[in-house]
Amino acid sequence: MIRLFRAAFAASLLLIAPAFAQDGEVHLGNLTISAPFSRATLPNAPVGGGFLSIENTGTDADRLVSASSPAAGAVQIHEMAMQGDVMKMRELGEGLEIPAGQTVVLAPGGFHLMFMGLKQAFVEGETVPVTLVFEKAGTVDVELSVQGVAADGAAMNHDAMKHDSAGHDAAGHGAMNHGAMNHDAMTAQPADDTAAITGMLKGVFETPDAPLSVEPVVVSGEYAIAGWSQGEAGGRALLRKTASGWAVHLCAGDGLKDAGNLAAIGVPAADADALAAALASAEAHLDPALLAKFASFDGTVMVDEDLI
């Protein structure tokens, strides 16, 4: 996505002092910002999410054009949505419109703030400062309260992939609930990669009523495979290390066990062989019922690597 910079906007921006209500709401002109929170992250997690509600009581639309925080290298405004079988998370380069007379909720599974390149972990009970810049209302500082890794906060329902009662999406594919993660993964690779992968998956796919289990996690070079289970559903995720940290490339079932399939996807041959061998070794110790969940994932769900 191409980020649009508006020099004229920066020159003409009016800084309006916000008013703070006793209940923690922040008022900025015609905007009311409420329920700001984040979730605790693991020590090595590369990213974190920010969530809040923005009510526009005015007669003119406004726009959230950017955000920043000393807690991260960058803060982006993201939207997550399904497009066919592809879960896409994209940066909104032109910002997020706040229509007149409406409330826009930033929550997992839809619009949200993405903290890229965390400088330290988000710790439950602490706060994360973020500066929001609006096209008309101006600039305001907001404190996100850090809640538990499975906190649902305000309107916290990370469920971007739609499911039926059997844990499959409308296309019949295996599905992950969208929303963070707790696990004891069987792994022989560096703990920092394992923790980062686990933290990222948990932060994105777990919800309070649908805990996500992840094991095993195997890594070779810039690629990794993680097995996951959530209720009666399960599968395997192929991840790739990007400039922003680990990102999900696709989700599938038994196809990710085969080195040839991995190479066909684009994994370097040496890494494909190493991943397949490590996965076979790690999964040899798992419960057959768990392996059956991995195999139950039907088809392949491609994921936009700009996501996380």
Report on the structure:
- The chain is an alpha+beta fold and 308 residues long.
- The protein has 2 domains: 7-147, PCu(A)C copper chaperone (Immunoglobulin-like, Sandwich); 191-302, no CATH class.
- It has 5 helices and 17 strands.
- Strands 1, 2, 3, 4, 5, 6, 7, 8, 9, 10, 11 and 12 form a 12-stranded mixed sheet that branches.
- A hairpin with a 7-residue loop joins strand 3 (31-39) and strand 4 (47-56).
- Helix 3 crosses helix 4 (269-283).
- It is elongated, with a radius of gyration of 20 Å.
- Residues 1-22, 154-190 and 304-308 have low confidence and may be disordered.
Short description:
With 308 residues, the protein is an alpha+beta fold. It contains five helices and 17 strands.
CATH architecture of the largest domain: Sandwich
> Secondary-structure element sequence?
HEEEEEEEEEEEEHEEEEHHHE
Q: Can you say what the CATH homologous superfamily of the largest domain is?
A: PCu(A)C copper chaperone
Uncertain spans: 1-22, 154-190, 304-308
Estimated helix fraction = 10-25%
Instruction: Report the total helices.
Output: 5
* Tally of DSSP β-strands: 17
Mean pLDDT: 75
Q: Could you say which structural class the secondary elements and strand pairing correspond to?
A: alpha+beta
